[in-house]
């Protein structure tokens, strides 16, 4: 609530001698002398005096997860009726994930305008290869791994359910890349798709508490990517419909003599239905993402032969073979994490794998004892602490 927030700021200013304490984006603490306090809405109203055509629309959304379907519609309603060259300014508190999401949605709406307005017109220009303008022909770098390409199992299922789902994903990926970082051909600072893969890589080196938080964030970002593809399918369907649905008395004004196709000015385009309606017509998508967003391999599988070797050594003489067990665990980790670059991340990933694997192969009586110590918080799931408890009976 802007009014309540303004009252709180006024109260704090009064209690602090006309100054407000704040924290900037880099978490640096500041104390600012306040000459005037205005809410965001008041600032925007002031700007309208200089820019009378300015339209301000606030859409509260989650930082990691997808906006609600109604939020997609609210953004579209704000953009309907704008010209093809109308600037769109997207802003959030930090300017990372939410702002980038808003930019992707706005760009996809602009594609709706371009596709619905100009496709018929472009086809009348001699020598133009219209297929070159198709954004669904976008080809991602094949050298990227499956996570960076966004080939999650739940996304594959979505593609199979949508009409031309592959085209929708290609279209969405192109816009996401253009709004991403320079390394993917964009001009932004956040890569909504590849950020998922980066977070997944970090997941492997985190402790349990951090993993729980990061797992939720990863699943939220997969949900966002899922709905951006679904929204792209909706926009593509809407563009095709808008080219055909023209009132009979208006068709003569927008029809092209050469082809009979319509070229409707962008500001006159309407969306035939809402994104909420589109999702209801494609029943099951909400349930699909709710159950499928966690369908990832969260832990790397130890090769069966390596696990059998370690279990055999532990069963035969755990303490007598402990040196070889630790050696073989790390030898296995060296192979399993060979895809990760050298550095602290790789060391932590291997160390965490060693800790969990040792717990996995402990002989039954010892395993129960160590699990009890961890549950009582006498020790943690740490390789050296487990070894200490196994060999000397104390952490």
Report on the architecture of this protein:
With 395 residues, the chain is mainly α. Helices cover 56% and strands 3% of the residues. It has 16 helices and two strands. It has helices spanning 2-15, 40-50, 69-79, 97-122, 153-161, 165-178, 194-203, 208-244, 248-254, 275-281, 285-292, 304-317, 322-336, 344-361, 364-375, 383-391; strands spanning 19-23, 29-33. A two-stranded antiparallel sheet has the order 1-2. Helix 5 runs antiparallel to helix 11 (285-292) and helix 12 (304-317) packs antiparallel against helix 13.
Q: What pattern of helices and strands is seen along the backbone?
A: HEEHHHHHHHHHHHHHHH
Shape: globular
Biggest sheet: strands side by side, in what order?
1-2
Strand content: under 5%
- Low-confidence blocks of residues: none
Radius of gyration: 28 Å
Provide a count of the helices.
Answer: 16
Q: Sketch the major β-sheet.
A: 2 strands, antiparallel
Helix content: 55-70%
**Mean model confidence by pLDDT:** 87
């Amino acid at each position: 609530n802007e009014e309540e927030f303004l009252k709180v700021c006024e109260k704090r200013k009064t209690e602090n001698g006309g100054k407000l304490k704040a924290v900037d984006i880099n978490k640096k603490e500041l104390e600012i002398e306040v000459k005037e306090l205005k809410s965001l809405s008041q600032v925007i109203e002031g700007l309208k005096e200089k820019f009378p055509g300015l339209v301000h629309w606030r859409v509260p959304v989650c930082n990691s997860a997808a906006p609600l379907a109604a939020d997609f519609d609210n953004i579209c309603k704000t953009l309907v009726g704008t010209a093809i060259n109308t600037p769109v300014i997207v802003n959030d508190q930090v300017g990372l994930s939410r702002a980038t999401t808003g930019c992707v949605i706005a760009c996809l709406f602009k594609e709706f305008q371009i596709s619905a307005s100009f496709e018929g017109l472009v086809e009348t220009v001699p020598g133009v290869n219209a297929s070159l303008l198709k954004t669904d022909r976008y080809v991602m770098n094949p050298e990227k791994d499956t996570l960076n390409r966004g080939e999650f199992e739940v996304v594959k299922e979505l593609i199979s359910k949508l009409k031309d789902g592959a085209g929708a994903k290609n279209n969405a990926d192109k816009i996401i890349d253009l709004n991403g970082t320079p390394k993917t051909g964009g001009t932004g600072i956040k890569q909504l798709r590849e950020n998922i893969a980066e977070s997944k890589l970090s997941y492997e080196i985190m402790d349990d508490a951090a993993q729980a938080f990061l797992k939720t964030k990863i699943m939220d970002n997969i949900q966002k990517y899922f709905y951006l593809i679904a929204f792209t399918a909706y926009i593509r369907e809407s563009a095709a419909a808008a080219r055909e649905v023209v009132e009979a008395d208006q068709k003569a004004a927008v029809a092209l003599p050469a082809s009979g196709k319509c070229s409707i000015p962008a500001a006159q385009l309407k969306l035939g239905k809402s994104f909420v309606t589109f999702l209801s017509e494609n029943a099951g998508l909400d349930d699909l993402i709710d159950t499928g967003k966690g369908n990832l391999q969260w832990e790397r599988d130890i090769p069966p032969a390596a696990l059998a070797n370690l279990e055999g050594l532990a069963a035969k003489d755990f303490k007598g073979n402990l040196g070889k067990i630790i050696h073989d665990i790390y030898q296995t980790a060296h192979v399993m994490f060979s895809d990760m670059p050298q550095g602290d991340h790789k060391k932590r990933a291997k160390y965490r794998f060693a800790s969990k694997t040792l717990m996995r192969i402990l002989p039954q009586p010892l395993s129960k004892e160590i699990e009890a110590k961890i549950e009582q918080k006498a020790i943690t799931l740490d390789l050296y602490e487990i070894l200490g408890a196994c060999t000397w009976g104390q952490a």
